[in-house]
Amino acid sequence: MIHLLVATPLVGLVLWLIARLAQRAFRNLPPGPKGLPLVGNILRAADNDWLASPQRRDDYGDLMYLSVFGQGILVVNSQRVAVDLLEKRSNIYSDRPQSISLNEFLTESLLFVFTGYSDLWRRLRRPAVEGFSKSIVSDFYPIQNREAIMLALSLIKSPPMKKHFQRHSWSIILSINYHLPPVESEDDPVIVGIVNHVERVLHEIEPGARLVEYFPWMRYIPNKLAKWKRDAQYWFIQDSLMYERLLGKVADDLAKGIDQPSFGATLIKNREKYRLSEREQAWLVGSMLSAGGETTSTALHWWLLALLVHPEVQVRARAELDEVVGYARPPTFADLPSLPYIRAMVKETLRWSPAIPFSVPHASSADDWYDGMFIPKGTVVLPNVNLINSDSTVFGSDSASFNPARYLDEKGQVKPLMEGREEGHVSFGYGRRVCPGKYVAEGTLGIDFATLLWALRFERPEGAEGELDVRTLVHTGIGAYPVPFECRAVPRFAEAETLLKEALDLYE
Fold it and tell me: How many Å apart are CA 127 and CA 63, to the nearest integer?
């Protein structure tokens, strides 16, 4: 009894001290806008343009903290802090935000991009990194070269560029992952199925899309009373079957002795090495597929807009192509090392308008302190990629403009602009969550830019008036497109179409 009387106040004192320390910690959160009762900064957090504005860094500094229904959100506004947190402390900043509807029901945590930091994620990451490493991606050059030629021919035939970019992007990624033949139309049933899957995923991760993210107890509502749960579970089965059928075709080809380069074939042949189940394999290939198609199409749209706004870029690129490639044949990957301005154009496109302005969100898996500020466990961390990519101290006073020459040295060769970033920007993400498909993306854009500028001249339609809008973003989930614009493609010389067709015949 005496022990109990002594212990009780001691326990109370300990609890009181813990509460005081917790209160003190939360008073030392990074600065941010004042929120409303209960809902916090829900209106600000949903406004991507407000979050990304350089004014936010002026207002709050390198770190800005918001809260939505008690969920902390940390916006990182500088490269120094992003590296300190997401790379130097990657052991606690490599998680993903909790998404109950997405990870528990729609994908069962098998969509690699959004899988939490866990043993499952580590098992998925290894084959993804190895399967798309710099030494492997040259196996995909013939696919990318062929598709670049097909895209140029498509743009010659008909002007609606969005559908051609989408067909092109999905066709490349389907061939790389499953070695499927070229897709003829964006209406192909395989593409439609994957695009629908991507749209479902993007809907689930939109802020405020599901109340269960703010009230986790809702995950226990019986299925018959929760249509959102029934729908998510239904689509998980359907999407699993879709990806399993696609990978099954690769397995059938391997069984017949048909062994063509593809990520799917690599997984199947190394099943024992990677220790993935058939469903995990199917979802991993599907993850790489769904992540790569939309971002490539977006990058092509931004590049084309930049060409219209800065016609001098086309002139310089074509001069380089004329000198290195000439007019007798389209470019190939063998030409790219001798085309530094084209390679610089790839870097500048990805820097100038990243397809995912805040990267894919990270989350902290432990409490942390940084520069005297407390970052609670479970905080969503958003690197402000657009702002970091526009840092005038790194990219010059014209960082808001599209200028590939910023990546060239005095001898006209590609130079690094960011310490520790061979790509020269941060659009591929940070730390252990960096995009494993970045070398494929760079190769695709490099051969696309070279082929399209070799064959075509891009210009605004006759009668087009007004300035083109290069800063307004059309947000699609975590991604962003430019405002729709018109453009026409004109063959640069009479023989261009014939030479493209002859080159395409070599890939038949």
Answer: 34
Q: Is the pLDDT of residue 14 over 70?
A: no
Please give the structure tokens belonging to residue 36.
Answer: 């409303």
Measured distance CA(85)–CA(93) in Å, rounded: 7
pLDDT tens figures, 426-440 = 999 999 999 999 999
Decide if pLDDT at 48 tops 70: yes
Answer whether residue 20 shows pLDDT above 70.
no
Say which CATH class 31-505 falls into. mainly alpha
Residue 483 pLDDT? 87
pLDDT in tens, 69-102: 888 999 999 999 999 999 999 999 999 998 999 9
Helix, strand, coil shares, percent, the chain, to 5: 55, 10, 35
Instruction: State both tokens at 385.
Output: 């990629």
Ligand-binding site membership of 487 (annotated): no
Q: DSSP letters along 27-96, please?
A: HTPPP----BTTTBTHHHHT-HHHHH-HHHHHHH-SEEEEEETTEEEEEE--HHHHHHHHTTTTTTS-B-
DSSP 8-state secondary structure symbol assigned to residue 361: P
Q: Are 269 and 254 in contact (CB under 8 A)?
A: yes
Cβ neighbours for 245, distance < 8 A, ≥ 6 positions apart: none
pLDDT tens for 229-273 read 999 999 999 999 999 999 999 999 999 999 999 999 999 999 999
Residue type, 92: I
CB-based contacts of 476, cutoff 8 Å, min separation 6: 202
Is the CB of residue 31 less than 8 Å from the CB of residue 47? no
Are 479 and 179 a contacting pair, CB within 8 Å? no
Q: Six-digit token pair at 224?
A: 């018959």
State the DSSP H helix or E strand holding residue 234, giving kind and residue range, or none if neither.
helix 227-255
